[in-house]
Amino acid sequence: MAENQTPGTVEHILTLDCPETRGIVHAVSGFLLEQGCDILESKQFDSQLDGHFFMRLHFASAGDQATLDSLRDAFVPVAEKFGMHWELRRHGTKRRVLIMVSKFEHCLNDLLYRARTGELPIEIVGVVSNHPDHRRTVEWHGIPFFHVPVTPDTKPAAEQRLMELVDRMDVELVVLARYMQVLSDNLTRLLDGRAINIHHSFLPSFKGAKPYHQAHARGVKTVGATAHYVNAELDEGPIISQQVVEVDHTYGPEDLVAAGRDTECKALSSAVRWHCEGRVFLQGNRTVILR
């Protein structure tokens, strides 16, 4: 039972988007009223750019798990009338997440901690790495670790292995937590809308090795990080979350690295949370986030 949930009730999250037209909110709220549901939170956005409507509803109903199935069936005519892309899930359901990581471990450790303490609504079902370094840490958390080395010759086989794990473990979201391998165009298509990456926001200004050292040499005044969906354009997918912190001349290269690690962890964890709570909608190469 969710915190503060009344006995005999269950809570749900309904997310939907469709072309903008009159009557959408009335139809959805009317449906919930007819079903005897109470709306706990409602967020919506009408995009004037392309005439598209986005909505997220948190509501409660009497019943049990079977109620979810009956609500889904009953909502189909409403969704079809407005041409909705929609999802109805039980509130608090944890998304099945697969993490990918290379040598840098700060984002991995942050996600492991937040998942273990319940701060993130995720179940980490496995960790994949092209290096064996973090096996002990991951397995200490009781999570399977998969060492999948990657070379130019073995990359196709490594990506096939990854998709086998995604399919076998019913993975809903892949998180690249400083995974330092470029995914192929084919793999990004297979993971479209369900893979999140993190990178330092200096891109494309400071590429290659030691970007924070390059930034120090240029006397930057802010450092930051960007979490985004993965697509075929390297580090240019739809942005979900960004973090920025001010720095000054007293910061040495290692101070900038430390500040950058913090922003990367925060941006990535926020992106994962919003995605898994059903708050993120893709709108072309942009996102709409109903927080």
Biggest beta sheet summary:
7 strands, mixed
Distance between the termini: 23 Å
Strand share of the residues? Answer: 25-35%
Instruction: Give the helices and strands as they follow along the chain.
Output: EHEEHEEHEHEHEHEHEEHEE
Overall mean pLDDT score? 93
General shape: globular
Which strand order spans the largest sheet, edge to edge or round the barrel? Answer: 7-6-5-8-9-10-11
Q: What Rg do the Cα atoms give? A: 21 Å
Can you count the beta strands? Answer: 13
Poorly predicted sequence stretches spanning 5 or more consecutive residues: none
Give the number of helices: 8
Structure report:
Helices cover 34% and strands 31% of the residues. By secondary structure, the protein is of the alpha/beta class. The strands form 3 sheets. The chain has a 7-stranded mixed sheet with strand order 7-6-5-8-9-10-11. A 4-stranded antiparallel sheet has the order 2-3-1-4, covered by helices on one side. The protein has a two-stranded antiparallel ribbon with strand order 12-13. A hairpin with a 4-residue loop joins strand 2 (38-47) and strand 3 (52-62). The radius of gyration is 21 Å and the shape is globular. The mean pLDDT is 93.
Give the arrangement of secondary structure elements.
Blueprint: E1 9-19, H1 24-34, E2 38-47, E3 52-62, H2 65-82, E4 85-90, E5 95-101, H3 106-116, E6 122-129, H4 135-140, E7 145-147, H5 155-168, E8 173-176, H6 185-190, E9 195-200, H7 211-218, E10 222-229, E11 239-246, H8 253-276, E12 280-283, E13 286-289
Parallel strand pairs: 5-6, 5-8, 6-7, 8-9
Antiparallel strand pairs: 1-3, 1-4, 2-3, 9-10, 10-11, 12-13
